[in-house]
Amino acid sequence: MAALLLSSLAGCSNVGYYWQSATGHLRMMSAARPVDDWLGDTQTPERLRDRLALSQRIRNFAVSELMLPDNPSYRRYADLQRPAVVWNVVAAPPYSLTLTQSCFPVTGCVGYRGYFDESEARAEAGRLAAQGQETSVYPVPAYSTLGWMNWAGGDPLLNTFINYPEGELARIIFHELAHQVVYANGDTMFNESFATAVERIGGKRWLETHASEPVRREYEQYDGRRRQFRGLVRATSDTLRAIYEQAGGEERGKLKQEALQRFREDYAQLRASWPGEPARYRFYDRWVAEANNASFGAQAAYEELVPGFEALFAREGGDFLRFYDAARALARLPKAERHQQLKSKESSGA
Asked: Which residues pair with 115 in a beta bridge?
């Protein structure tokens, strides 16, 4: 996720939103201490010490192998005493997966609003629902300030993700650092898809070259189930888009409900094939139970252009610096043109 603070500081007319964003970020920054301090503190729990040491190996790998920025970001750690750093609010019309935009002078238009207080996020969702929109509120473990806050210590590691499986910890660090490399104003799908492509490519390399065999096996199962779930979400999103484009009147509403019911039934069948404790899949269970246009639209923002970026990486010979230059060139194009180029690369495989 990119640029929560920058969006709010860019001139939001809602003073309350401006205030919660600025103060929330400053509280997070003030809670952060250098990782070396945590490692040297005898009061630091052994598990946290091990995870922080791992995070720094991952951080160094990001610079040496993925050519991501070498700066203060993710060299400090903060325990926020809560399960998410922010809660995002997304909204969409009853018959569209296109997210409602919030626009700001610096970062352009984005399809979400982030709140440091969950109750404020849910209040905003209620306000949008009262206007007839479908809404979703979801926890966010990390966000990027695009490198603008490196002078103040950079974006910190957080308790909200430090205990993720090793492969996932690597991916989230790579994802957030990628936002500091390429950013297109007003194009959430481009930005998140680029960062997701970097995290996937980088995460695969980390696991192949630095992780133990048990860690690789564990992560393969973890990520395999996520891919299955996201495949089901993408298929349902495609079905819903087709319904909204082709049907009308009462038939459109009926077909929409039938598609959502099939989605829940298909998920139940998929879920039954996954062994393990039920609590492990609580996030997926809740997502499916609450699924609507907003949640499907938010998921698409992170994934729709990823295959195009992966094809671009391959076209550039697997060279990260050339890949980043090519992505920056795309970011300078008009939005529709950059999307079309990425989709054509996906379809051509080049």
From this structure: 87
